Amino acid sequence: xxxxxxxxxxxxxxxxxxxxxxxxxxxxxxxxxxxxxxxxxxxxxxxxxxxxxxxxxxxxxxxxxxxxxxxxxxxxxxxxxxxxxxxxxxxxxxxxxxxxxxxxxxxxxxxxxxxxxxxxxxxxxxxxxxxxxxxxxxxxxxxxxxxxxxxxxxxxxxxxxxxxxxxxxxxxxxxxxxxxxxxxxxxxxxxxxxxxxxxxxxxxxxxxxxxxxxxxxxxxxxxxxxxxxxxxxxxxxxxxxxxxxxxxxxxxxxxxxxxxxxxxxxxxxxxxxxxxxxxxxxxxxxxxxxxxxxxxxxxxxxxxxxxxxxxxxxxxxxxxxxxxxxxxxxxxxxxxxxxxxxxxxxxxxxxxxxxxxxxxxxxxxxx
Length: 367
Prior knowledge:
Its cofactor is Fe cation. The chain is of the alpha+beta class and 367 residues long.
């Protein structure tokens, strides 16, 4: 790739040696919570046992500033979207309360079957956007996959506890999941903010459900063994995906201890709290980043790909009016200077109209 760029871009004044292509690091995106109109009963209240969260970065981007000051019309739209989400969530909760009043594991099985669905839907839509060149933010796909991976293990735990023993429970959960998937795909295509808020409502209910269960059944759970799948997931050697979905934490900062079934449910509850925080952050467009991206940024191994859009209408509009993707590449004429790229004086070259709508900015050190 270096040869292609060097031969096509510097034919008149080639660099003194073969250029080395390195990613150009931009300042990390900030973590700003979406400015949303939340009723008090919709706020997620975390248990005091949960450790406090400190955002990895505190810088404020232009997009974040804009998002934090919505117009009157935007506020009305957000209020309308959230009222629909709250109505739908409350309706499902009433059904579950009626059917699973005293059948906890079956209820948890249904909840975890449903909880995986939105992440599948998000990834489906984002993959479609990528196919059309509308989306180039891999962090969203990484985090959403890690979230689905976490929910899958919650589901496996409930199955090992016998939550899927009845045919009716499996039938209900699976058919709700199909309907939920279709609904979420359509909702996410129209308004990602609304889809993320709906998922936040679902995760908030899951957190409350597990929290109440722990408080009532806690002493009994402490005398019961932990399922093997839970021990393997929470204490295994490879916890990359476990760290990946916890976007408000530094990787490796949470390492659960699983000694009994009580510990399992405490960690499942805490997982749901992390999902709530991630879904809340996603409601501010462009606000999500993989926790591992910050560490990778520090060693200069990530290429910043910034194409993004809010819903299919915005994607189509941007694809017509502007280049859908932008790639920033750092070109150094000497491999020895790679470690000094941060302090090198750079000359910028911009080449537009490349295939696939790429807008490439090339930087090389001045001599």
